[in-house]
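Page 47, continued from p. 46.
Same chain as before, 477 aa.
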Amino acid sequence: MSSTTPFPQKIQYLSIGISCTSLAISAIFFLFYTFLYGHNCSQSFGLFNPRELKRSASPDNSSSPINFPTDVSHLKFILVSSRKTLKSRKPYIEAWWRPNQIRGNIFLDSSPTKDLLPWPSSYPPFQVNEDIRKLTVYPKLVVPAAVRLFRSILETFRLGDNENVRWYVMGDDDTVFLVHNLVDVLGKYDHTKYYYIGMTSEAVKSNFDFSFNMAYGGAGYALSYSLVQVLVPAIDDCIERYPHLRVSDQLLSSCLADLGVDLTIEKGFHQIDLLGDISGLLSSHPQSPVVSLHHLDGINPLFPSKNRYESINHLMEAAKFDQSRLLQQIICYHRPTNWSFSVSWAYSAHIYENIIPRSLLRKPIETFSPFKKSARPPLYMFNTRFPSNHPCKTPHVFFLESVKNIESNQDQVLTAYNRTSQRNLPPCSSSGNHSADHITKIHVVLQATRRKQVGLRFNFSALHHFFSLLFFYARLN
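Result:
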């Protein structure tokens, strides 16, 4: 490929390791695509290479992650809620919590009311936070609720039952975790060292108001057990030092900074400090395993044909087939029609009637708006593309309909994406007027990844050096 030619005249092997071919079948129009993934395609499906970690002296609770892989039994969740919000958050908790498989508690500001009793078996066991009014510093606290949430770490530690715990994971009652992905992400790190793992907000304004070096508890964050053991004795001292701080996440990050521990970024944690339609973001997700979603009540339903609760359950059903691929972006080009394809696995598929460079397709379309309406540019911690009405720049959009194993070959997984609305634009004339208006459904067939069960952990094996996908596009009009 010439350095002066951005795209080859005949698509063979693109720099992203993808090859496309096509064929037509009788009266129904199909395009058949095979993608070959080589060594240069590690960005697809959230693959990563765990870095080599040296074991430090362990405080009594752990072993090297290389010799003893992390599984879900090594995680202890700390969920924070209130009597006021808990009932409305039930669908989000039940979407991911698995009783008798996942360890942890949900902390409340007061005892559950009668309408929450008997306590649902689908919830984590509850704990009522200690009365912070007994603290000497209480009269100085600007936001006492922030201290209640922060001290949930301390109270969890005091509950005991920390045998074999490697990670404390904090989240809100409306945080939806992808637990198997979380296990894989944390498995990269040595839990015998001091780790504070999470993600900043998507919004520049939120980070400016609080900190650019702070993990957001709504998105969730993880603390290595070794770090928790050092943090717990310092928590009340930190509260005395920072009574003016307004959010628990700020208290934690300040306290950890004083202990010499900085934030380790993992992009799969999502605070979602956004409003409106976030399909643009999820359709161009960073090449990192999706670990969490938050603030789902503040955005449009993830799928336009469903409500919020149906949408998250629809996504989680797809995740049962393969969390590691969820929302991972696949990009391909078809030269005969000059089309570009972008698929966010198990969420959406886009067809562009033009060859669009990958450097642009990986930027989210700004379908959303800032969480704080007073925000001024720059708005986001990532680059975006503005929505367009130009026929060569506007995609045909399809959303996930279903995921299933193919009956004739259980080693293959089929995802189907349906068009939800027409573009109502003319064809892209500069690319040959090859309209995609007649495409109503997209099928994506993937070779199923092999899952090796280790205790309660699903360990996703590495993909083959060369990996094939099959794309089918059908005209049903």
